[in-house]
Structure formats: structure tokens, C-alpha cells
Amino acid sequence: DAGVTQSPTHLIKTRGQHVTLRCSPISGHKSVSWYQQVLGQGPQFIFQYYEKEERGRGNFPDRFSARQFPNYSSELNVNALLLGDSALYLCASSLEDNLSYEQYFGPGTRLTVT
Amino acid sequence: GQQLNQSPQSMFIQEGEDVSMNCTSSSIFNTWLWYKQEPGEGPVLLIALYKAGELTSNGRLTAQFGITRKDSFLNISASIPSDVGIYFCAGQLGEYGNKLVFGAGTILRVKS
User: Fold this and answer.
1) Residues of A whose CB is below 8 A from B95
2) Rounded to whole angstroms, how far apart are CA atoms B48 and B31?
3) Could you give the CA distance from residue B16 to residue A28 in angstroms, rounded to a whole number?
4) pLDDT band at A100 (very low <50, low <70, confident <90, very high)
5) Which of B4, B42, B94 sits opposite A105 (nearest CB)?
6) Dihedral, CA of residue A6, residue A11, residue A15 and residue A21, to nearest 10
7) Residue B18: CB atoms within 10 Å
8) Cα-Cα-Cα-Cα dihedral of A92, B36, B85, B57, to 10°?
């Protein structure tokens, strides 16, 4: 079975631009979460979506937004990019949004802002 | 916000040695997870712990959920070169919702 997939793999953007990152969860998984991982640190929670509804939001500015589609795939959008947005963006999926279900991560999208 | 203190920050050990790393928090977590991340990859789930005091093994890996629910440790026995990577602990809060709080990671290097 395919794991969590993310696209694109790498992306280079300029300050002020916007970016859309995509995630397809493991088949059957209804919950998708997004994390930002800056070099040398652990992942930091951005959003969680379950059944197309936002279930949680981390401490990130309004420039960050996300949505989940009927097929449970998800997009993360970041507007007005800053240099500090350069990071590995990880998507994780789980069967349900209950903490009894483990989260599985995709390979991530490496975003570089110049 | 919640923080996890993970130690040690890095380890450089001889192949065959046992490894121990731990995570502590000022908050109580309902679930503890241990992940391994290799360069250019996302974190891979190693072990999930759901009950205080629970001790779980996965091959050469053993992890425990602390009785106070504020700590967890991971042991790797008889390390091999492919154990190299960054190991993260993660805690999950609340009854619902999937927000994970991660430690800063332990970098493991194995000398063969």
C-alpha cells in the first residue's frame, strides 16, 4: 500500500510569493495534519483537518492556511513568503482524529525561500 | 506552550553498544510516540505508547511510558550502522485531535 505522498518534493520561491503544497494520505485515512520542520529542530504542528473540517491550529500566522478535500487529500497554502518560512513541510495522516490512532508522515516538501 | 526536553542531544557510539535516550515534559501526555528520521525523509514511527507504565518492544527497540505520564525513554540494544539517524519523541495531548508536540531530537551516529 502507498504511504503518505507529498508534492512537490522541492520548491524554490522568492520572498513575497505564495506557495501551495499538496498531500495525499494513506488510503482510508481521514485525518491529515501539517507540520513545519526547520533545520535542526523537531517538527512543529501547523494544522489538523478531519473530515474536511479544521480540528486544530498551531501558533502560525494567518499567512498559513489549509483545506481538506472530499477524497481526504489536503493542501497547505502560504502567502507572502518570508525567508523564515524555509523549512521541510511534513504531512501526516491517521485513520481517525482520536489519539489512539498513530500518525504516519510523508517524505515532506523542502521549501526554500530566497 | 508545551515543550519536550529530549536528551542527549547527540550520541556517537560503537557498533554493538546499547543506546538509551529519554524525553521529559512539564505537561502530562496521553500518548507517547518515538520516531526516527533519516536525511531527506519524513519521520518514521517506531513505537507508540498509550498507557502509563507501558513497556513496548519493536525488535531491538524498547520504549516505556513513564508512570507520571510526563516522561518516556527509548532503548536500542546492540546498535548497528543502519540505526544512524535522528530520533524524536513526540507527545500527544487531549482526548481527541492529533496535535503532536516533538522534542528537538537525538542524533545517533554509530561507529563500525
Assistant:
1) 98-99
2) 7
3) 40
4) low
5) B42
6) -20
7) 12
8) -170
